[in-house]
Structure formats: structure tokens, C-alpha cells
Amino acid sequence: MAVTPHGRFDRSGALQRFQQLQLDDYSLGDFEVELNGNTLVVTYAWSAHGNFAGHPLTSQPVRMMSVWQQQKAGWMMIAHAASEGVPE
Questions:
Q1: Could you report the per-residue pLDDT of 53-83, keeping only the tens digit for each?
Q2: 2-82: which CATH topology?
Q3: Which of 52, 48, 59 is nearest to 88 (CA)?
Q4: What is the distance between the terminal CA atoms of the chain, rounded to a whole angstrom?
């Protein structure tokens, strides 16, 4: 599941949106990690240059949160949220 200011997306919808993303450059930073049993919550800042569906990405850092769960096959992201969305 993914949540952005442009809506909530199931796995299929989130993957379709990610396929529209073209990155030229990016950076990650300001990480905070919390482990609770087999679940890991990671918050961080993401800055990128590129476009989404032909529209330029914001030049401001975006706050992200990803929720990971340890499963038999390894760690899998089960949810993701962004404080700023990519253009529609």
C-alpha cells in the first residue's frame, strides 16, 4: 500500500505510479529507524531530480515513511507514505 497527497494506492496501483517515475539523481538522509518485533518503521528525507509522468519533481525534500515486515522470504515493505506527492 502507498499513500500520497494524491491518494491511496494498492500494490498494483503503487507499482504503476512508480513506473512513471524517471530519476536523474536522488539523495536520502535524516534517517530514523524503529524496530518493534518483526516490524521496522523507517522515516527519512528524499530529494530527487527528474520527472513523474512528464512533470518535474519538486525541488524540496520530501519526508517519507516506509514500514517493513520480516517474513519467511526476508524483509518486505508493506506500507509507504510521502508527505509531498509527485505531480499528477
A1: 888 988 788 899 999 999 999 999 999 888 8
A2: Nuclear Transport Factor 2; Chain: A, (3.10.450)
A3: 52
A4: 18
